[in-house]
Amino acid sequence: MKKNLRAFTMIELMIVVLMLNVMAGVVGVMWLRVERMAKVSTDNVMFSIKAQTVLSRIEKDINHSFQVSQSESALLLLTQLSADGAVKKITYTLENGELIRNQNEEGKNDLSMKIANLGNAQFLLEKTSDGAIRMEWFEEAKGRPLDVRPKRLITFVKGSQLHP
């Protein structure tokens, strides 16, 4: 007596394997896109944190200064009074892709510290027509042909006069 046995044919099994491979490919592509988006988001957050920290430090120095100026050798020259009444000069310069803050106070040793390593970022500082100081920290999208959106953070400091 013959029993009717039902089983999958080889064609059916090959179709199932093909469908699983297609689904695995789609999931893999989606996973790579999610990872890429997470990296871009992390890079943007790190850029914002770094730029905000640096610009806040410079803004604080500008707000505590009674004289603000620029020169060819320095991005920013600030003159402040210390707690004991001594004149304190603070200079921001760009040296080898690093933003350097130099502090010179009468009768004390000079203090120099690296504020930031700019890498491929750029820092601009200029006076606006209303007397405010415009500080811009930006990074162009290099090495990524389809990424045309640069990272940019701009802040304005009012109440100080920028002397040429």
Question: How would you concisely characterize the structure shown here?
Answer:
The protein has 164 residues and is of the alpha+beta class.
Ordered list of secondary-structure elements with their pairings:
Layout lengths: L9 H54 L3 E3 L6 E6 L5 E9 L2 E8 L5 E7 L3 E7 L5 E7 L11 E7 L4 E2 L1
Parallel strand pairs: 1-9
Antiparallel strand pairs: 1-2, 2-3, 3-4, 4-5, 6-7, 7-8
Describe this structure in words.
The structure is a single chain. The protein is of the alpha+beta class and 164 residues long. It is built from one helix and nine strands; from the N terminus they run H-E-E-E-E-E-E-E-E-E. It has one helix at 10-63, and strands at residues 67-69, 76-81, 87-95, 98-105, 111-117, 121-127, 133-139, 151-157, 162-163. A six-stranded mixed beta sheet has the order 5-4-3-2-1-9, with helices on one face. A three-stranded antiparallel beta sheet has the order 6-7-8, covered by helices on one side. The model is unreliable at 160-164 (pLDDT under 50).
Q: Which structural class is indicated by helix and strand composition?
A: alpha+beta
Q: Which spans have pLDDT < 50 for at least 5 consecutive residues? A: 160-164
- Side by side, the strands of the main sheet go 5-4-3-2-1-9
SSE series: HEEEEEEEEE
Distance between the termini: 107 Å
Q: Provide a count of the helices.
A: 1
Helix content: 25-40%
Strand content: 25-35%
Radius of gyration: 29 Å
| Number of DSSP E strands | 9
- Largest sheet descriptor: 6 strands, mixed
Quaternary form: single chain
- Kindly state the mean pLDDT as a whole number? 83
Shape: rod-shaped
